């Protein structure tokens, strides 16, 4: 027989589980403890008594805490007794005073009204419709967005009464009468003092606005300030005939850009249209690369942007001139002038494509004429030109371009510049081949494709002494015009034909100005004596 564990303090007495243990043996009733609560009447079935809750233990209250936290003597409940407005408390404080009489008249209920909720103006009472009062103002009040916290804010018409017309639509209000100017001034509809005040305000606003506008205009534009004296401007002619702009406008269409393309490289220069058949005069060094092989291509670009391929007609390395032909219709041809009429100080204009900048115009004057200038020719050989010197800005790419006078006539072909350093830009010293020489060379190239020059047949060098300078003969070629004329080594040539010779370059220029077979006087100095010989120049 196993022993059962003693009952847990939280378990009911064995008698409470009698229905599970079976019929119990009769026993004496248990005596309740002295502090147990009296048994409460129970509706439970017989044999299942209910226990009453134990009484709440009330610990003693500290008199000091009771004096601080206890209710006042006259207060029995949790809240103070309600007092009428204006009634004085025991502490002598006055409750909220009654509202002002003006507010009472504006917002109080009508006399004799028992309604607890005000209605909107003009609404009908529900009891007038024969039904019970609705908690809403109208039938659609339940869908009123003002009563829906989640409704979006929408700007609607003002909450005013709208008069309805015959069809139930809002009735438009008739436009009221307007005051005419006569009624406003003489109809006594407006007080004279109000009209005077309005007129005075308008005058004041106009005066203040005009004053501020003047101050703003004077401060914003110092040119109109009375403290500034402006220089006077007199009317003048705009681009008169003969001005740079007038000349440039007439000459630019006759000046072209020349491009030579060789593989991935190339060069650019300028040219001048001298004949209606499409003949373009330029420098030999501009198109020299195009003559070296079939792979090179030559293009001519006109002032209006027309681009066409050109072919070489002829070239003269000794004078650095060449002629190119393009197939165009009705080209603009430049007018040829006379370089022999140029004087130092005459105004000239240079037109070309310096540094690839097409149709560039610069202005200057004639700095010198008949200037013998030695250049580096094709293959490294010397080239001597009888140049017109100018201070018009000329740079790389101007070569072959036009040098025109103040009338717009061609007086030279821009060819070279002189700078302070190798590869530098313009410093105001430029040289052009005179048009008188260029015309003769161009005509010969167009007719024959090549040019023959007259020569004396000597090699010379420049010499100077106390009495002057000239070209000293270093050697004389056999069978040359100089040998036939009796010119010997050591002679100093000082004049050939009509041109004075002060250097070896002057002698070359003087030879090119003569015709082949022409007999010309040659002035020489031999052993301190001046003698004159006659030579028949031969072809080179």
From TrEMBL:
Keywords in alphabetical order: Hydrolase, Protease
Region (Disordered) location: 1-147
PROSITE patterns attached to this UniProt entry: PDZ (PS50106)
Regions of compositional bias (Pro residues) in chain numbering: 1-12
UniProt cross-references to Pfam families, sorted A to Z: PDZ_2, Trypsin_2
Keyword Transmembrane: no
Residue ranges with Low complexity bias: 21-44
Any GO BP: proteolysis
SUPFAM superfamilies: PDZ domain-like (SSF50156), Trypsin-like serine proteases (SSF50494)
UniProt GO MF annotations: peptidase activity
Biased composition (Basic and acidic residues): 71-88, 123-132
Coiled coil spans: none
Domain PDZ positions: 445-528
InterPro entries: Chloro_Bact_Ser_Proteases, PDZ, PDZ_sf, Peptidase_S1_PA, Peptidase_S1C
Protein name in UniProt: Serine protease, S1-C subfamily, contains C-terminal PDZ domain
Species the sequence originates in: Streptoalloteichus tenebrarius (strain ATCC 17920 / DSM 40477 / JCM 4838 / CBS 697.72 / NBRC 16177 / NCIMB 11028 / NRRL B-12390 / A12253. 1 / ISP 5477) (Streptomyces tenebrarius)
Source species taxonomy: Bacteria, Bacillati, Actinomycetota, Actinomycetes, Pseudonocardiales
């Amino acid at each position: 027989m196993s022993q059962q564990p003693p009952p847990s303090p939280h378990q009911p007495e064995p008698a409470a589980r009698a229905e599970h243990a079976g019929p119990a043996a009769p026993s004496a009733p248990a005596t309740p403890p002295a502090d147990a609560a009296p048994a409460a009447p129970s509706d439970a079935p017989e044999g299942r008594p209910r226990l009453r809750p134990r009484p709440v233990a009330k610990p003693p209250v500290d008199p000091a805490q009771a004096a601080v936290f206890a209710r006042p003597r006259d207060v029995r409940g949790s809240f103070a007794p309600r007092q009428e407005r204006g009634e004085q408390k025991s502490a002598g404080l006055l409750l909220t005073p009654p509202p002002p009489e003006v507010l009472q008249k504006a917002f109080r209920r009508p006399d004799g009204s028992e309604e607890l909720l005000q209605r909107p103006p003009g609404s009908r009472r529900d009891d007038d419709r024969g039904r019970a009062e609705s908690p809403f103002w109208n039938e659609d009040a339940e869908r009123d967005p003002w009563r829906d916290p989640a409704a979006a804010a929408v700007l609607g018409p003002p909450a005013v009464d709208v008069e309805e017309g015959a069809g139930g639509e809002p009735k438009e209000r008739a436009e009221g009468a307007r005051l005419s100017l006569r009624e406003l001034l003489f109809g006594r509809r407006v007080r004279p003092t109000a009209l005077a005040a309005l007129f005075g305000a308008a005058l004041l606003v106009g005066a203040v606005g005009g004053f501020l506008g003047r101050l703003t205009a004077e401060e914003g534009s110092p040119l109109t300030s009375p403290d500034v004296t402006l220089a006077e401007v007199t009317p003048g002619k705009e681009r008169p005939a003969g001005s740079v702009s007038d000349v440039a406008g007439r000459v630019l269409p006759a000046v072209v850009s020349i491009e030579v393309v060789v593989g991935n490289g190339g060069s650019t220069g300028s040219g001048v249209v001298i004949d209606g058949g499409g003949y373009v005069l330029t420098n030999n060094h501009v198109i020299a690369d195009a003559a070296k092989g079939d792979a090179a291509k030559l293009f001519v670009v006109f002032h209006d942007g027309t681009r066409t391929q050109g072919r070489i007609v002829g070239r003269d390395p000794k004078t650095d001139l060449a002629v190119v032909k393009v197939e165009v219709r009705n080209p603009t041809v430049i007018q040829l002038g006379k370089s022999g009429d140029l004087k130092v100080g005459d105004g000239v204009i240079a037109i070309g494509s310096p540094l690839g900048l097409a149709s560039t115009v610069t202005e200057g004057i004639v700095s010198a004429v008949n200037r013998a200038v030695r250049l580096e020719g094709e293959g490294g050989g010397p080239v001597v030109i009888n140049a017109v010197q100018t201070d018009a800005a000329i740079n790389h790419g101007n070569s072959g371009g036009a040098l025109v006078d103040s009338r717009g006539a061609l007086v030279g072909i821009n060819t070279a510049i002189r700078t302070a350093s190798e590869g530098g830009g313009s410093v105001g010293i430029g040289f052009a081949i005179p048009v008188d020489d260029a015309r003769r060379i161009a005509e010969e190239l167009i007719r024959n494709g090549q040019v023959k020059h007259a020569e004396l047949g000597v090699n010379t060098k420049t010499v100077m002494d106390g009495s002057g300078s000239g070209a000293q003969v270093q050697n004389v070629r056999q069978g040359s015009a100089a040998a036939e004329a009796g010119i010997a080594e050591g002679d100093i040539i000082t004049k050939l034909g009509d041109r004075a010779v002060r250097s070896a370059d002057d002698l070359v220029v003087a030879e090119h100005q003569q015709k082949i077979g022409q007999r010309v006087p040659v002035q020489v100095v031999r052993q301190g004596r001046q003698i004159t010989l006659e030579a028949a120049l031969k072809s080179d």
